[in-house]
Every structure is written in C-alpha cells, then in structure tokens.
C-alpha cells in the first residue's frame, strides 16, 4: 500500500483574477513506505508548490492527496495541522533552528508543538536522535556554535524525532559545500534505511538525485520523469 497517493493534482494561483495561472497540471504519483525519492526540475517548474501541497501547507485547486489512505482534500485546517504534525517531518535549506535554544531543545520542539509539553520520555527520544545523527557530544550547543553540516544534522534529528512515516526535505544541502552535502546526504540515507522512513528530497544536485531510489522530475508543472534508480536495486 502507498504511503502517499497524489492523483491529478492541479494548482492555480490567483483564481478569478486576470493573472490567474495554473502551475501544476495534473501531477500523479505514489510514494511507498521507506522510499527515498528525489524531486528535481528547473526553477519555476512547481517544486515548491508541490512540496507545500505535500506538506499540507497549501491546498490544491483540484485532485486528490491521500496519506496512509486518508483523503486530505476534504478535511478542515485543524485536522490538517494534526496530520502535518503526526505524519510529516520537515527539513529546509536553511535549517530553521531556533538560535537561542540548544540542539537538544531544538529537537524537542516538535513534541512541544504537538503535545504542548516535553515529557521526560520525549527528552530521552530527542537525546537518542541526536546520538543517532552523531551529535551526542553537541547537545548543549546552540546552532551558531555548530557548522552548517552539523546544523542540518540537528534539523534531520528534529524532523525525525516523532517518527513520522515521511520526511519532506527542501534543498537540505543547498547551502553546504560538497563535503558537508555528501555527509548530510549519507546521513539521510542511513536514517531512512534504519527506520524505514520515506524521504522526498528536492535537490538541484544531480549527484545527490542519482543516489536516491527514485527520481521525479517536474518541468512546467508536469511530471516528465518518474524513474527508479539502478543503484537502489531497481531492475534498470
Ligand atoms: P520551483 O520551486 O520549482 O522554483 P514554484 O513552485 O516556486 O517553482 O513556482 C512555480 C510557478 O508558480 C512559478 O511560475 C511561480 O512564479 C508561481 N508561483 C509560485 N508561488 C506563487 C504564488 N503564491 N502566487 C502566484 N504564483 C506563484
Ligand atoms: P525557490 O525556487 O528557491 O523555491 P521561491 O519558492 O521563493 O524560490 O520562489 C520560486 C518562484 O516563485 C520565484 O520565481 C518567485 O518569484 C515565485 N513566487 C513565489 N511567491 C510568489 C507569489 N506570491 N506570487 C508570484 N510569484 C511568486
């Protein structure tokens, strides 16, 4: 069974106005549990719009989006927020860590947001996640005291601490040098494999896309490629 099922998704901005524009034209694909998928495409092709729809931050104009079989289109904003906090983790190009808080405090934020408090069990989980991303020694550091690559590792720990089935990553290595990019990408691969978490990674880096299980390519709001990669054990 699919984890995410996107069917015939259309998105129009400025509906009813002279500048109305359709930027996604009937996009369909499924993502299975545990898949590591790259989303590529030129600037303006609709990647951010698609990611915002997948992330339940923006609604589509028409089409269907199911997570674990449940339709997202017809539920209200409050239910969407709950789905977002339960089913999805987010990693951004700029880490979006809170600068005044330590790495550990940053990783406890999703629990605070979802449950309104941080239990000792959640604190333990946050510590374990930071250990898992190799930052057990840096839990009490603030983001400003960490390198760019380490900041993204904290962001990955934060995205995964509540064990969502799916993590959406928007150019997670876009702001890093090659060595740090490789390291952060390797970490995502390892975390995805160990925990069977699905990842959708928007990237401009063809090297990183080639190391995913599957590549989706958007051009002018249409899916022009959906290719399973040989390196991941596919048949081609
Ligand atoms: P990408 O992330 O691939 O660069 P975007 O999803 O940001 O693409 O943009 C796709 C198209 O939608 C572009 O033509 C962009 O100008 C347009 N667009 C994006 N957001 C809006 C918006 N809020 N209002 C109107 N047009 C938008
Ligand atoms: P990125 O491609 O790095 O994700 P953005 O999502 O900020 O960058 O913007 C992508 C494109 O969408 C840009 O061309 C931008 O001008 C356009 N865009 C973003 N928001 C709007 C908007 N509200 N109205 C029109 N165009 C927009």
From TrEMBL:
EC number: 3.6.3.-
BP GO annotations: response to antibiotic
Keywords: Antibiotic resistance, ATP-binding, Cell membrane, Hydrolase, Lipoprotein, Membrane, Nucleotide-binding, Transmembrane, Transmembrane helix, Transport
Class of enzymatic activity (EC top level): hydrolase
GO MF entry, a single one: ATP hydrolysis activity
Domain ABC transporter: 4-236
Signal peptide: none
GO cellular component: membrane protein complex; plasma membrane
Family label: Belongs to the ABC transporter superfamily. Macrolide exporter (TC 3.A.1.122) family.
Name of this protein: Lipoprotein-releasing system ATP-binding protein LolD
Organism expressing this protein natively: Hydrogenophaga pseudoflava (Pseudomonas carboxydoflava)
Gene behind the chain: lolD3
